[in-house]
Design goal:
Blueprint (H helix, E strand, L loop, with lengths): L8 E3 L5 E3 L5 H4 L20 H6 L14 E5 L6 H12 L2 E6 L5 H16 L5 E6 L6 H5 L2 H5 L4 E6 L3 H4 L2 H5 L2 E4 L5 H13 L9 E2 L1 H11 L3 H16 L14 E2 L1 H7 L12 H15 L3 H13 L4 H16 L5 H16 L4 H14 L5 H14 L61 H17 L18
Parallel strand pairs: 3-6, 3-7, 4-5, 5-6, 8-9
Antiparallel strand pairs: 1-2
Helix pairs in contact: 9-11, 10-11, 10-12, 11-12, 13-14, 13-15, 14-17, 15-16, 15-17, 16-17
Length: 480
């Protein structure tokens, strides 16, 4: 029932996968040994858990020293599937692969039961590889727990999502979490050059220009699978010419820059709107605006736009950034961000990218202040700590019947009747009298706010009492 899971490989008598001649280049070039693995040296040092799992030591019960469950977490194209294959091929164990996209609980249980029967009859151990394990439901992940605890299978699960959020705690606590790092450019280059000459790959049927190599590596962006896919497409284009055996001058055909560009018009942006990269890119975007690096902010905006991110989501984050990071240093930034959000809603994409870019430039180049943000959080902290007190009597509502008899509004000073429109009286509850929450910066417009606020606080502090109305002649005391 699992034949559809091996569409690009064949298996030997032990169930170990072997690439077909017609398999994609990325499949044919999977490392046959640890020495061929590019990058991930931090996981493969002598004696490391992963190395013990791939190359179990000789002797009875030696496999029990290796972990029974491993979760491989890393970006696409970093070698998660490759490591799973090596666990089976090098150790000679039976290999079964399940895709979390297509497999259900019934499939998981059938694999586990088959593995139990094999162990009971002296058969080979089973390596169960679950790709995209983060797509498994809770019940599907729970179905794996008995097999992990009893070592009926050696589980190798791969995910591009943070396991802390995407994998159930019981399974995560029973597994060894290994984080794969993005491949360096030199790692991918070594894989590409090996694929050109290796008999499993192109077997020297083409040569690769240096300029074409550099462009291919830029397009791949650290994704080995993507690099080999582009290489295979470019080689296919070159070899499909009129004389595939030789170049124009009788030499081996060469893959040039134009051939790589013809093979793939535009590099697919590495960005998953539902995964970690979504949060990483938006985080870098907001932090670049906060840090006033307009070029970096535009770069991350472009990545989101090219990946098809919802422009309304981007616009909402810009509104938040304008309030949180620019604040009163440039109050017009919030107006720009809100206008951009409304404009994007009105005109949509692709023209909406221009509106978003204008807002990004305004926010990134604006002076920054988070004083208002810190101020409201400080006030909230006091409220949540119970420091609220009662509203001073002279500020209470005096409109309803009986309010004045209770003293509500007595002594209230109407601000417009005082010089500069500031009436000296206490506004905070007694328990908070004198508290300061807003501390303006000296940047942008907020410098003017700071100067005015200093004068205002001087006036308010000069008479904190509530005696006397302080009204000008001819005006009645306001009741609100």
């Amino acid at each position: 029932m699992f034949d559809d899971l091996f569409s690009t490989v064949t298996t030997d008598s032990a169930g170990t996968p072997t690439a077909r001649a017609s398999s994609p280049l990325a499949v044919r070039m999977r490392p046959a040994s640890i020495d061929e693995i590019a990058g991930q040296e931090h996981l493969l040092v002598p004696g490391s858990p992963l190395r013990r799992l791939i190359e179990p030591a000789e002797g009875a019960g030696s496999t029990r020293s290796a972990p029974s469950s491993v979760i491989l977490w890393g970006p696409p194209g970093t070698g998660k599937t490759t490591l799973a294959y090596l666990v089976a091929t090098v150790s000679g164990r039976r290999f079964v692969e399940l895709s979390a996209v297509t497999a259900g609980v019934k499939d998981v249980r059938q694999v586990v039961e088959d593995a139990r029967r094999r162990l009971a009859t002296g058969g080979d151990e089973t390596v169960l590889f679950v790709d995209e394990v983060h797509r498994f439901s809770k019940s599907q992940q729970d179905a794996l727990l008995p097999s992990v605890e009893n070592r009926w299978v050696t589980l190798v699960a791969a995910t591009t999502e943070n396991p802390s959020f995407s994998v159930n705690s019981p399974l995560l606590s029973r597994s060894l979490l290994l984080t794969l790092k993005p491949l360096e450019t030199d790692d991918v280059r070594a894989l590409v050059l090996r694929a050109v000459t290796d008999e499993r790959g192109l077997d020297g049927s083409v040569e690769l220009d240096e300029e074409a190599t550099e462009h291919l590596l830029r397009l791949a962006g650290g994704d080995a699978r993507k690099a080999l896919t582009i290489l295979e497409a470019a080689a296919g284009a070159v070899l499909s010419d009129d004389d595939p055996a030789t170049g124009a001058d009788g030499t081996t055909p060469r893959i040039g820059l134009a051939d790589v560009e013809r093979a793939v018009d535009v590099a697919a942006v590495r960005y998953d709107r539902d995964g970690d990269q979504h949060y990483d890119v938006i985080s870098a975007f907001i932090k670049s605006i906060r840090g006033s690096d307009v070029d970096a902010a535009l770069h991350y905006l472009a990545r989101m736009v090219a990946a098809g991110e919802d422009p309304r989501f981007i616009a909402r984050r810009l509104v938040i950034s304008a309030a949180e990071d620019v604040g009163m240093a440039d109050p017009s930034a919030l107006q720009t961000a809100v206008a951009a959000a409304q404009a994007v809603q009105l005109i949509g994409m692709p023209e909406g990218r221009i509106v978003l870019a204008e807002a990004v430039v305004h926010l990134a180049t604006a002076p920054k202040s988070n004083a208002a943000y810190l101020g409201v959080d400080a006030a909230l902290a006091d409220v949540r700590a119970g420091k609220v007190g009662t509203v001073p009597p002279h500020l209470r509502d005096a409109h309803y019947a009986g309010a004045k008899q209770m003293g509500h509004g007595d002594g209230y000073r109407y601000a417009h009747d005082w010089p500069h429109g500031v009436a000296p009286q206490q506004y905070l509850p007694d328990v908070l009298a004198g508290s300061r929450y807003y501390d303006p910066s000296d940047r942008g417009y907020e410098r003017q706010v700071a100067e005015r606020l200093e004068r205002i606080r001087g006036i308010l502090g000069s008479d904190g009492g509530s005696g006397g109305t302080g009204m000008r002649p001819g005006r009645e005391a306001a009741g609100t």
